[in-house]
User: What shape does this take?
Amino acid sequence: LRRYGKGDLQATLDDLLGASMPALSARRGDVVLLGSPRAAGICIGDRAAFIASAGVAYLPLTQCVCAWRID
Assistant: This one.
């Protein structure tokens, strides 16, 4: 974030990946943004995978605020 940062994680991802879309529009492989705490993850269907202190955390897409399409 220090190198590419635009003030916050969502603005940085918007700058790097383009305009965001609603989280529930995400498809497998798209980048998603968790609402709280802010974290980027990967859509794996109706859930998203995030790096956690104990490994990988799987959370429902309903907890995400937006997503970015990865083609």
User: Anything to note?
Assistant: The first strand starts at residue 31 and ends at 34.
